[in-house]
Structure formats: C-alpha cells, structure tokens
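Weekly structure sync, notes
Attendees: PL (lead), two postdocs, one rotation student
Agenda item 3: pending single-chain targets
PL asked that the sequence for the first pending target be pasted directly into the notes so everyone works from the same version. It is reproduced below exactly as submitted, 92 residues in total.
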Amino acid sequence: MNEQFQLILLNVLPLLVLLLVAYFAIIRPGQKRAKAQQQLMNNLKRGDKIVTIGGIHGTVRAVDIKTLTIAVNSKGQELIIDKEAVKSIRLS
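Predicted structure, written out during the meeting:
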C-alpha cells in the first residue's frame, strides 16, 4: 500500500506544482490588476486628468455611475466615455 501511495504521489505531484506555478504566474497578477482598475474607476472625481485606453487625454468634468464626461481640449469639447475606458490618471 505504501508503494501505491508513492506511485500516485509521484504522478500527481508534477501536476500540482504546475497548477501552483500557473496560479502565481497568471491568475494572481490578473486579479491584482483587476482590483487596481476597479479602485481607479471608483476613485475618479471631477478635475482628474486621465488617459483612456484609446490614448485620449482629458479632464473629468462629470462622473456618473458608469460614464464620465471629459473635456478633451481648451475649447471645451466634451466626450462621454465609459469608466472602464480609463487607463490611468495623469499626474501632471
């Protein structure tokens, strides 16, 4: 019985190690990025300077539940975008 257990363990152990490596290399970083993006979307406020995933730079004028109104130039042109389209907040 002891030999059978060792044989099963030797066959299953590489699979378990592979799953553990996959979790720490792929799944966990993805969860961290998703959490950070959700926090970014929840903390947006009027006056924030943002960059969208499409590369559009603008300043937040209004925040709704799912959308933002942003000013994209000095003439006051505005766009309405989904909050999910925000890539980052500009520091300058």
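Discussion points:
- The first helix runs from residue 2 to 42.
- The first strand starts at residue 49 and ends at 52.
Action: rotation student to compare against the earlier draft before next sync.
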